[in-house]
Amino acid sequence: MINYLQNKEKRHGFSFIEILVVVTIIGIISTIGMVTYTEFLKKSRDAKRKGDLEQIRASLEMYKSKNDSYPLTSEVTFGGDICDDPPTCTSGIYYLRKVPNDPKTAQYTYYYESNGIDYTLGAYLEQSSTSSCGDCAIVGATSCNYCMGPYGQIVPP
């Protein structure tokens, strides 16, 4: 009996309950970290989309200042650029060499509609209301939920 007690006192380590508590705490902290990280990624992609729309908007304003109208919807190639001699853009001034890709899908997922007098730019944001402001042709989305008009004005849904 004395030998058994001496062996028990010499044992060092953690009990099963202690290990279980530590693993549970680490799991909870990891879950919170992953959710926060995912939300951060969504917000950063949305900021990139808004910046891309601003870049497109600025090039449209430069186009208008030279040509006295915005390019028509049919004159902007979304795989391409905004220039003085659409649709080929083989000569003339480039206002935007290449329309930016969506940061998540790497596809052209921006909406543009113009009648020459004004325009609407749109994108689908991950962190936004579900309101619609345009009929976007976006893969996996039915409509834009963030739209912008001339001079950077936000177009209401």
UniProtKB/TrEMBL annotation:
Matching entries from Pfam families are given as: N_methyl, T2SSG
Does the record's keyword annotation contain Membrane?
yes
Q: Quick check: keyword Cytoplasm in the entry?
A: no
Organism, as annotated: Candidatus Roizmanbacteria bacterium RIFOXYD1_FULL_38_12
For this protein, the record's InterPro entries field holds:
Bac_GSPG_pilin, N_methyl_site, Pilin-like, T2SS_protein-GspG_C
Mainly localized where? membrane
Give the transmembrane region(s).
14-40
UniProt KW keywords: Membrane, Methylation, Transmembrane, Transmembrane helix
Q: What is this protein called?
A: Type II secretion system protein GspG C-terminal domain-containing protein
Subcellular location, record wording = Membrane
Q: Which GO terms describe its biological process?
A: protein secretion by the type II secretion system
Membrane topology designation:
Single-pass membrane protein
The Type II secretion system protein GspG C-terminal domain is annotated at 41-122
A GO cellular component annotation in the UniProt record: membrane
PANTHER family membership: GENERAL SECRETION PATHWAY PROTEIN G, TYPE II SECRETION SYSTEM CORE PROTEIN G
